[in-house]
Each structure stands twice: as structure tokens, then as C-alpha cells.
Amino acid sequence: MIKDLQETSYLFGSNAPYVEELYENYLEDPSSVDDKWRQFFDNLQNSPASDGKLGTHDVAHTPIIAALARKRVSGVVGHSDGELEIARKQVAVQSLISAYRFLGSRRAVLDPLRRKELPKVPELEPAFYGLTEADMNVTFSAANTFFGSEKMTLREILDALRQTYCGTVGYEFMYVSDPAIRQWWEERIENTRSTPNYQAPEKKKILEKLTAAEGLERYLHTKYVGQKRFSLEGGESFIVSMDAVVEQAAEYGIEEMVIGMAHRGRLNVLVNTLGKSPKELFSEFEGKYASGDLTAGDVKYHNGFSSNVVTKNGPIHLALAFNPSHLEIVDPVAMGSVRARQDRLNDPKGLKVLGVLVHGDAAFAGQGVVMETLNLADTRGYGTGGTIHLVINNQIGFTTSDPRDKGSMTYCTDPAKLIEAPVIHVNGDDAEAVVMATRLAMEFRNTFHKDVFVDIVCFRRLGHNEQDTPSLTQPLMYSKVAAHPGTRAVYAEKLIAQGVITEDDAKAFAADYRRQLEEGTIQEFAPSISAKTSHTVNWSRYNGSLQDRVHTAVPVQELKRLAEIITTEPENFKVHPLLEKVLTDRRSMKDGLINVDWGLAEHLAFATLLTGGYSVRVSGEDAGRSTFMHRHAVWHDQNRGTWDTGIWIPLEHLSPTQGRFTVIDSILSEEAVLGFEYGYSGAAPECLTIWEAQFGDFANGAQVVIDQFISSGEAKWGRKSGLTMLLPHGYEGQGPEHSSARVERYLQLAADDNMVIAQPTTAAQIFHLLRRQMVGRTRKPLVVFSPKSLLRNKAATSPMQDLSEGKFKEIIGETEDLDRSSVSRILLCTGKVYYELAKRRQELAAYNVAIVRIEQLYPFNQLELNSQFEKYPNVSEVVWVQDEPQNQGAWSYIQQRILAAMNVGCRLGYAGRPSSSSPAVGYASKHIEQLKTLLSDAFGPLKGLIQIK
């Protein structure tokens, strides 16, 4: 009697994935599987399932093995024991094939240094499946492979598998859930058995690129001894890979490419990929600089570059993003630039603009921003149609890294599995394989528009930098490095052996490149290099000053017209009752029955910009609704409520010719999303690009972006950005992580007119501030400490007239009609504490006290402050009042500016919370106690005295 399937082990264990895959193939196309399996699955489909019903084609794939186990074999098992043994061995062979697809990369020869023996992988041995030497010449079906024959001996199958999956290229793609993608990879690599077949001209070009990569490094090493350059020696095949990317991109019709990379090999890319003049590079090594308008500048291996390069498939614009020393932080910045360019060219699929990210092995595996950026890849607001990732894997990370401490992953590229991105590992010494892998990656991206990785496994001949001595801590590895002749020499020897070139040809390539370096121009690029294209943004239009007068008022009739549109519900659209209340109030504001609140003022700022030809992009973790529910830019139909049909975005429906409005609820990421928006703003000056923190404190998670890009990008690189950051800030008793946007940090970073730092206190102020950010002829980052309680504070609302007249006021003087001659004390403050001070003054009837609000902290309007003080000739006391602790907030920054405005004999005091290591207290009772104290101090005897003598 034939045993139950549950006892037929070849269908289970490690073979289960194969049976499951066969069943998936059967469901898609019954003719794609062997006759016996097709008969078997036919019987299964038409037999009762566990619930007694007939099987259907929507049977879940994963439970198929369990379903099989509950049944008798109706096809295969019905045959003789001999036939059953043949079927068992056929399944074993298919399991072996599947194992190579899954695990073959573990046995691939990837390390040019050959430091370790390849690991034992039992699943790749026939014996693991009960196959013996006697089976080697037996013919089996190879119908589910792409080796060119449906019938092959086991020996032929094994040789094909080893050649395909265990040569100098290793693949990881079987974890991808889409069967079409898995089959695509199987077909592409098994058809060629991972063996490139290039003709002599292509091989010569590869050698020329290797020669150029090596030649530049050796020239710099001898001419500028000991200077940091983060050499590419040992990884020269990366330049070959970049060349393949550029050529293939042009063939696919890509018009622009944005490259993000850190230090390693950057100078080589500048010269040998983008065509930067060697003469210009040498000037930088010699301490000269051409950009005299930069207030700071940067080191040569941080600088970016743009050029047009002519390829055999036509011209392509290349832009290498500027990058600081923070490893992978450039990743989201470069992707933001890609997305902005795609939006500008109306290129939603990324057919015209491509992003390329170049990673280091240790940094890619170790930096959290990598995972955050990868997680953006397929989202609506941040997707770019697939990114090409190239990894310069020198197998060491930092020089002193102990291999035991490199990380917990098998491969440095394992984070790619987060988004099911395929990975090709390739031995950097096999330059032709590097080209093949790169072209495969480009073809994949062009087909599926998803991310893909090429991991170039190489080595690093020198230390982490040129002042390093790696043999101190890596003696064994660097004994191997010292003995390695170099990738160029390895490949040249191969071509000489093939008769493609002679030894004299190889020497001539090197001598010719050396001559070009001496002359300061690379012939390949000399006739074609240019930075401008038809898509180039004219940034010269934004060379205005922050002190320029900007007209931001909008006629009241236009404001009412737009308000009508953005408060009108579509037909048969049911909004939430809470939103209906908001819309009812906004209609009243439009009609002048009540003042305009923060939410409507913000919407009107957006609407007027959109109808004025600008675009608006708002992102953040709650951007559509907003954390404090004041925005409501996205309405959800309460009857439908699905994301594809049940939403309405009023700001998208203002005019047929309006600008693009984008509002995105981002993933819970600060660093990557803020970096992305900075990159976006740097390529889209006509778009009001806003990142809104859920709470201002959360920008802490993106501090590297703020320090290295937003505050200093213009001083270091001349890169302008109009990025706006909305950082909810205010002491409402919500604890230390929901109070402070760390005002003091931004003020520390403020210099060189590098950004605007503001804390507006009325609806009209945010309206004019947002409009000024775009209407003005300058582009600087804008940091707004936006309110929380003021969003619904009636005292912070504004009449419509304030939007149709006036402008943003950098300082708001006293609004009450006080007797100026009787004023003896001025309270200076910023933010919501103004309203608490005004209320307290009324309670005390202290009308000898004037209150002045600083609405823009930087650039600081000293003349206006002086003017405010001049209004009160009898003032003897000035008090700075702030919500923040004394060692935080604006107190340290503002002191000298207040003193400069005070008269001799006048005294300056402080009222605020005491110094604290935490930004705010967590106990509500203590918060209230501190608030009472600071209000009392504001009107009581002076504390923290500073006197003008």
C-alpha cells in the first residue's frame, strides 16, 4: 500500500518551497509545469478541500503543502515504486536548483583577496537531497530553468548552476514576493549562465576606464603626498560600473541623473565620470579656490559638480550632490533632488530622471538613515521610480574594524531586503562581470521601476584616508593587499592572454592618460562638458536680499473667492462633523463675521501662491490633518473613506492653471524625510517646500540634516534652499518632548544671513510670512516656531483686512493705547507667552508696562527694536520674558541686541523658567507653578540684572 503523503518526505522540509513554487506556476499557467505535476495539481484542484468544498484557483499558496499532506497521491503516487523513485529524484533535482537560486551567492567567488575559504553550504550539494554519483549521468527535466534545454543530466545541471550562481557573481532575489520578478532574474542570468560575452572594443573601453581610475589615484598619490583624498585604489572597477550606468541610462532615454555618494572614490567620479577638469581639481589640492563668493567653502571630497556628458546614446546631465562627512546622510537629499526634477518634468515613473546612490559597505549597514531612505522608495510622496545602488565594498569599513564587530548581517547589503530590492554581488577583480551586473541592474530598474543593488566586492589599498596605516591593525589583510597587482593589471593580463591587446597597448593606455592629467584636460570630456541643459533652473533670479521689501498683501475679494472654494464641499461628499464645524467657522471668517484663524490664514497663503503660479509641497507625520487638527487639507468622505476614492483636497481644485499642491503624511521618519525635503527644495525654487514636525522637539532626530545642510549648505557649497520648517513650539504642560523646538540651537547656527528664524503670533503673520518665502527674490531656509494653543486662541486671530494689507512684521510693538510717557518698563518676548503677559497686565492694571513681541529672531531687526524703545522716553527697566528655561530659548542670543537698544541707566532683567537640563517639566502642577512665577517676575522686582552704565 502506498504511504500517505505526510510520510513522503521529499514533498516537505527544504523541498516545500519548490512544491509551493510549482503550484504558483501552475496557477498562472498549467502548461508551465511537468505533465505529472499538472495532473497532480488538476486532481488537487478538483478534489474536496478541508471544508468539503471543491478547490478553486484562489487556494492560498502557503497551505498547499498541508493540503497535499491530507490527500492520497492521485497522479504520481499511482505509479510503480520505480516511477515513484524517479519522481522523488526529480523533486530532489528541482530542490537543488532552488537551493542554488536561494543560496548560491554563499559559494560565489567574490573576494579579490581570497582571504578565506568559501563556506560549506550543505544545501548546495546533491547528497543533501539523496542524490549520488550514480545519478550524475541520469537525465532529468530542466523545464523550470532557463539553461537552454528541457532535459539535462544531473552533471550538466550542476555545472550550469555552479557557473551561474557560484562564479564571480552572486545573486539574491528569491526573497522577492513577486513571482514575475523572480522569474525575470532566473531567465536573465540562467540564459547567459552569468557569463558576459563582450567584443574587443567593449573590452578595450573597460580597460581604458580601469586605467583612468587607477591612473588618477596614483598621480594624486605621488604629486600630493599625504593629502586626504579617500582613494579608490582597489575598487577601480566602480568607475567601470558608473560608466555602464551612464551609457545605459542614456540608452533608456534618461535625461538627468542625480548621484549621491560619500568620500570614497568621489574625486575619481568627478574627473572620470562627470568630466571635471583635472586642472581645477589640482588647484583645490594646492589650496586655491575659485568660488570667492562662498563665506566658508568645503574640502574637495565634499564638493558636488554638474555637467553634460555626451555618450554614444546621446547627452545626459549628471549632478553629483554635495555631501558632508556624515556618511549616508546624502541619500535622502539626493533622492529629494531626483523627485523635484521628476515633478518639474512631469515624470512620475522616473523615465527621464534617475537617482544613483553610492554606498560604503560599513556605512550602508550601520547608518539608520539608510533604512529610513529605503522605506521611502515606494511611497507616493517620495518614490522616484527606482534607484540604482552601487556599493563600494572594501570589506573593512573603518581601518580599525575587527571583523567580529562589523555587524550582525550576512551581507552589508542586507538592509536592501527591507524593500525586497534584488542584490547582485560581484567580484571587483572581474571587470566584465561588474559591467554585466550593472547593466542587469539598469535593465531591472527600467523594467520594474524598483530599487536594485550592485555590491562591488573589492579592497582598499590605502587606509581609511591617506594619513592612515592600516597594517597596524589589519596585518593579514594588508599583506594580501600588498601582494595584489591591482584590478587594472589583472584585467590587462587577461586581455593580453586573449589577444585583444598587447602588453605595449596596455602601457600606452596608462601613458596616454598620464599625459592628459599633465595637460589638465581629459580628452573624452573636453568637447562636451557643460553644466546647463534646457531643464536647468535659473538660480540667479534668487540672489536678492533678506532685507528686500516684499509685497505679500492680496486683495480682499481674491481672498474671499479662494476661501469660498476651499470651504465648499463636493456634491454627495459627507465630511466628519468636527470638520463641518471647522468649515462653518471658516465660512464665517470669509464673510467677515469672525476673524481669520491660523488654519484659514495658512490655507489662504497656500491658495494665493498656487494661483500665482507657485507649487506647494507639505510633508510631515500628520501633514494632511496636522497634529493639532488645524489644517484639514485633506477631507475624508465618511460614507466611503477609501484612500483612492474617498478623499477631497480643496487646494488641488482652485484653477486649471494652478501650481501643483502636494500634501503627504510621511512615514515616521525625521532624518530621511527632512533630508528628502531639503534635497527637493534645492531643485525646486518655485515650490514652497514645507516639512512639519509632529512636535518641534522631533527635529532632534534630524539634527544632522539641519547642521550639515540646511544651516550651512549655502556657506559651504553655494547651494540655495527655500525649505520651510514648521516646528510646533510652546510650553503647554505637555512634558519635555512636546514643548521645545530648541530655539537656542537654531540661533547658534544663524550667521551670514543663512536662514530666517521666526515665531509668529497671529494668523496674519503666518499668512504674510509664508507668502514672503516665495514671492521674495531670495531663497533661504525658513524656520518657524509654530504654535499649538494659539491655533485656537481667539486673541491670535486676525481680521481679513490684515491679510489684504500690510506685510510680515519682524517686531510687533505695543497694541494697546498706552500713555507712552508713563511707561517705565518694557517686556520683550516671543511666542505665546505674549498673550499670558497681556492677560496678566490686565489683571494687575499695570499700564505702565509695554509689551513688545519679537516675531523674527534672525535676521534681527535692530533698527526696529531701537525705534520701539524710542517711543518710551521714561523707561528704566527692560525685562526679557520667555517660556523656556534660562539656559535655553533666546535669552543668551538676545541680550546684546537688547542692550544695544537701551539707554544709559536702564536695567535689563530676565523672567522665565530656571535653568534646566531638560527642556520642560513633566508634571502639570509644576508647569503651572513655573508659569505663575515667571509672570510674577515679569511684573515684579528685576531678576538677572544687567545695567547699562
Automatic annotation (TrEMBL):
Q: Which cofactor does it need?
A: thiamine diphosphate
Query: Which InterPro entries does the record cross-reference, listed alphabetically?
Result: 2-oxogl_dehyd_N, 2oxoglutarate_DH_E1, DH_E1, KGD_C_sf, ODO-1/KGD_C, THDP-binding, Transketolase-like_Pyr-bd
Q: Which family does it belong to?
A: Belongs to the alpha-ketoglutarate dehydrogenase family.
Q: What is this protein called?
A: 2-oxoglutarate dehydrogenase E1 component
For molecular function, the Gene Ontology terms on record are: oxoglutarate dehydrogenase (succinyl-transferring) activity; thiamine pyrophosphate binding
Q: Which GO terms describe its biological process?
A: tricarboxylic acid cycle
Q: What does this protein do?
A: E1 component of the 2-oxoglutarate dehydrogenase (OGDH) complex which catalyzes the decarboxylation of 2-oxoglutarate, the first step in the conversion of 2-oxoglutarate to succinyl-CoA and CO(2).
EC assignment: the record states: 1.2.4.2
Question: Gene Ontology cellular component?
Answer: cytosol; oxoglutarate dehydrogenase complex
- Is Oxidoreductase among this UniProt entry's keywords? yes
- Superkingdom of source: Bacteria
Span of domain Transketolase-like pyrimidine-binding? 596-793
Give the record's keywords alphabetically.
Oxidoreductase, Thiamine pyrophosphate
